[in-house]
User: Fold these one by one.
Assistant:
Number 1:
Amino acid sequence: MSFTSLQSLMEAAAERQISISEMVIQLESENTGISVETIKNNMAEALSVMKKAVSSGLEEGVISVSGLTGGNATKMNTYRLNSKPLNGALSTKAMTYALACSEINASMGIIVAAPTAGSCGILPGVILACGEELECSDEDLIRALFTASGIGAVIATRATLSGAEGGCQAECGSAAAMAAAAACELCGQSAEVCMQAASLALKNVLGLACDPVCGLVEVPCVKRNGVFASIALTAADLAMAGITSVIPPDEVIDAMYAIGSSLPSSLRETACGGLAVTPTGLKLKEKMHNSTDLTDIK
Amino acid sequence: MSISIFNITGPVTIGPSSSHTAGAVRIGRVARTISGGAIKNAIITFYGSFAETYMGHGTNLAVVGGLLGLEMSDPDIKRSLDIAKEKGLNYEFKTAFDPRYHPNTVRIQASGDGRDINIRASSVGGGAISLDCMNTYEMEIPCTMPTMIIAHKDMPGLIASASDILAQKGYNIGAMKLSRSRRGGDAVLVFEVDTEVDELTLIRLRALKQVKEIIYIPKV
């Protein structure tokens, strides 16, 4: 069996009378021949890297290689701790952590691609914030990561996780779907609710373009990670309220793929459209080409 | 082909880009593995999107880091150019254009303690790569499993003989590709194998009458 659909993943788990996260672990072991214990240790390592990336990203002075981004995580952190944000405590914490991880990525720090480096802040932002606010153990977080990676594996098999192929809906959209399912897992929800959360997250970012300014993984990528942490939590809340997607989850994934194929290449990680070719985007690109010292370009 | 979940929640890598940084490290590592020894001189030519953005993505740092044998999760990649100077690796970066190539393509021409190499590879997303050309042999190898590139003369019996030698030692072939320049001409057989292949088996394969040369790439 492989990760061909969310429906079959759920049915296989139900048949074996195990959770989605357990099903994902067993599938990985069956497909690769690697022991369950090693698989769990590998995910524990990924969690550890995620935690470190978030804490490093909250320190002062984190700035990207190009100088285009930096300092947004600390701004958000100060704001949430010293005012009454419109989004609640958990959501603003998730946004802060997602920004932190994403800024570490842009500064050539070490992260876990989840599913890609450009979207690496969303899943850690959500699970670490939920973990703290809901007092979850590391074992709980690791289980949620397995649920998330099962969702991502189905999207990779059925569609794509690559911005170059499917636009940002495939990268950050998939990350938000993974994070939404993980959040529901941490709240003890059923597999069906986790799938619905994933589907609601992805459905609401369909058509999203990948138009990185100067072709770098910074603008709009860093701040998008912050926004998408909140989208994941919104989708999770909708699903936990019993709200379901009229279009079944696997069909939503298929629609994402079809939409991605219809996107012109100018909106699929070529930096030839959208934000990348705004007057400011073009000015920044010009500066980058003329500058040998990249920190000059802002 | 089934996906490993550690390519979904993973790899652990230096940022900022799965394709332009992590994949570039992997390409450097493959080049070093094929060469079989420390690299002393390397001309690194970036095409397409790599050429446009290599500085902002640290693709240049990543390729050199890979040539030095660093893992993609090694923070030392950020100072790989300094390490290269310390270890006597002379590098040169160039950019070029070829519409036939994948947008994230790099050519590495290198020499050192091992064999001279001239490879072209592309970074296809999520840290995954494709080895597209080695010397004159065109191919498309993901380098995720131990891989044997068997350059031979196109004539009957090679596939049967080679797979028989592997089967005798219990090696399982996961994927196979065969191509030839023309009937009876130069041909390339690529085996991707589940487990690393021992030296004796490689010697037996090299001794086959059809075989010109075998390049073995262990899992990188």
Number 2:
Amino acid sequence: MNRSDSAVGTYLDDLARMLADLDPAERDDVLAGVREHVDGILAERPDDPRALEDALLRLGPPEQVAAEARADRAPSTSPSAGAPLPGRAWLVAALALTLTSTLPFTLGTALMRASVIANVSWLQPMAPLFSSWEAMTRVWPLWVGAVICTVAARRLAPRSWRLLLATGPVCYASAAAGTLWGAQSRVWGLISVVLLLGVIAGTAAVAIRAYRERPTR
Amino acid sequence: MEPGDSAILTHLRRGALEHCVLALLDGEPSYGLDIARRLGDDGVLLTGEGTLYPLLARLRRQGLVDTTWAESATGPPRRYYALTAGGRTALAAFERTWKTFRDAVDATLDRRQS
């Protein structure tokens, strides 16, 4: 009894190991079926010492059973499966270009508004550099580059690339709002600073999230 | 059976074997050991008897068979597999398709010998 239990146990352990990547319910199903199969044979031939050996032989090697379990896992039919992912440099370039084309004027506008509210005068001569319409239009080549690289790298960040593309328009809109309305009063100035800081934090968060995505296909 | 035949058989079995199992269950439910025996031990339909169980699990997952437990006279309780309505439909479809397919293959093989 002990010997037969251990032989069956070994077989089932091996099989369980080979089925490790299967859905647990299905794996249990297969293991239970095989165990029942062997128990059935042993019950039919209780006095035959070769019954167990015979049963395991007829079951076939556990690899064969595992192969059958995997047989219906057809290769993925997704069009991008099998094609190599684009080089990670595309993603790095996309992130760098996105950040350099959005952060300067959003940060700049926030600083301008904050300096007006706080009456810090030394920053104000720098206003034209960061928060004017001219500054925003000056960075458009960087933004176009960012869009191209983001689209090229979309498979490297499948969950984040659309968000990344959205950061541009969002940053532009919030900087424009800050410039147009932020100057009207202290309250509006404060609101625009908070809005801009939120947008900057959001942009950084999206960039980090995109960078961290490591899809395998 | 010759040595090279097993690779071809593996391909041919795919899709056909599960329907053979459905055919065996048409009429009355059966349990694993019985199904394995009825599929034959000549290695044509079933290589190892163990390969039947992933197949049965798949059929169950696809809703083509249902299972119930029943006591057996000779030993431990057994799991019985029975066709569902979906299984019956799949079997009927296979029977239609298989006959056409088999006849087409036979005709092609025969044609070339004449």
Number 3:
Amino acid sequence: MSENQQKIQRNFWEKPWGYVESFLIGTGLIFVGFSIEYFVPNAVENSLVFPYNTIFLVGYIFLLFLLYKKDDSNPLINWFTKVPATISSIFLLTLLVMLMGIIPQVPTKNFWVQRLGLNHMTSNWAFLCIVFQLLTCLGFVTIKRIAQFKWNNTGFILNHLGLFLILAIGFIGRGDMQRLRVTTNEGQLSRMGVDENKNQVELPFGLFLKSFTIDQYPPKLALVNLNTGDVANKQSENLYLIEKGGQYTFDHLEVTVDNHLPSAGKIGSKYEAVNEEGSPPAAFIRVKNNENDSILKGWISCGSYRYPYEYIKINDAYAIVMTIPEIKRYRSEIEIVIPNEPVINTLLEVNKPFNYRGWKIYQLDYDEKKGKWSKKSVLELVKDPWLPFIYVGVFMMTLGAVFMFWTGNKITNKD
Amino acid sequence: MISINFPFYGAVIIILWIMGLLLLGISYKQKSFFKVSMLLFFIGWIVIIGFVIQLWSFLDRPPMKTLGETRLWYAAFLPLIGFLSYERWKYKWLLAYTITMATLFLVINLLNPEAYSKTLMPALQSPWFIPHVLVYLISYAVLTASSVVAVKGWYDNYHKKFEIKSLKLADNLVYIGFSFLTLGLLFGALWAKEAWGHYWTWDPKEVWAFLTWMGYLMYIHYRHFHTQKTTQALGILAFAFVLLLGCWFGVNYLPVANTSVHTYTNY
């Protein structure tokens, strides 16, 4: 497969096709794709569903085998198995993805962007065309190597077949994927969700939110530059998790936390422990300035959606503040409700979804404005029947990566 | 309680490495200085590893959340790549480059102090956190090493003394770096499925990760077919590295960053 040093005088479209032909085909495909998109805009909703997508996929793979077996000397088929086809399709796909990275993928009033589908790139006909070209290259080179029946092609086949599976199934199977967002409230049963196109959809089963709980880290103490609004003195430790009795240093300031109330309310000029909704944490601190031996005392609080924050000013430029406590953990205790069947209890957390009857239930979000007092929990139900095939592709590519490491590690300057 | 003092340790490591680089330069004329420079590099490397361990213990969480923390790991991996590559290829300039890049990133960290936060948001509390980030940082370190071949290649081309051997070095590094890059991408997809419901959502970070992957994919395929076309290969290598930097840093500074679920720098 190495190149000759001599330049061979070749006619246009004479086999084997090179880069000029490759880029012509590729850009031609893209042009055709954009033209179709202009007249018949595509959308993800139009994706093929079962069984049409399965028929298409099986038919396509079968066709690849058939074409390869019957006619591998055909210039077109031959072109697909060579690197210029691969590199041109990778390059053109890269260009389109770059566009996707630059042009926001949201509805727009810009005529050309909207009409050419530049703002919904992954369902754009041009994009699909170039993915299809890449997929065909992958298909043919994989078949070619499998047909050689040699063990040392294993790494190659794992990588190329793995990628083929992931791309083919990722695009062809996406019509069968369902994602439903459900906003549940404590003590209420939810039966409806919203899909990606903002349509109301009935859930396959009822979801009852028994309780939603948030664990927070303690609030932090910070020295803030009032002019920039940023944390000061970052060169050393400068954010401390507050603890009652804790002693902390900020440069020449020594802060002692005399009292820390995780849930407090202001009564008069003091804070007392109050367990109401929206009660923020508060702390009584003493700040000793080692430069002039002065001491400042007072209450600070980070505030909440109901109550304002308070801080202690050191001078015109700096203040000691309490930061809003960060979230450590949040979880929903739910019941899955199906008529005539016992309810199923489970706990949902981020990174710990629950599998049920082909659906995976995720803890997504909550009422961020209310924070720890949120009575609302946003869940997501996802059905992805093609996922096992994706996992096969991922597994193959993982093994393929190990082979790549192995191959790469063998490259020395002695070859 | 352990206290953490990056400016001190950072300065110590930088000084050791700069001294090592100077001695490495001298060793081109006086071979005996080479061993001392290697020793200085190695001691500096031990110090940075020690600091990373200390930071991990201090923060009570894997120190892989913020940009500064990822830069620290990168500065810790690069010298190791340098040592291993030198072992095989015996190129002093590659060793010098990896140490220089590591030093540069430590300097960047010194100039951009971050607040030390012991908190870890729920999304990052997953067994995938460490493998995904570590594997990516190893790949970034290895691919950075490969990028210097592009720089040196152009320099050599200009002086008409290019060695095809240095492209083999790039191949060696790119294959290894790319295998880690692929693993990073796959781990990210598997994690995303557990955390966010879908393995791929074309989030800005994912878009740039994909572009980086494509860039090196082009290099590998081009080199496979056109083993003698050196200038173009070097060009693709340099371009791919720009995409890598875009993915690592660019995304956090783009206006679209706050729509990405991958930005975790707050205080």
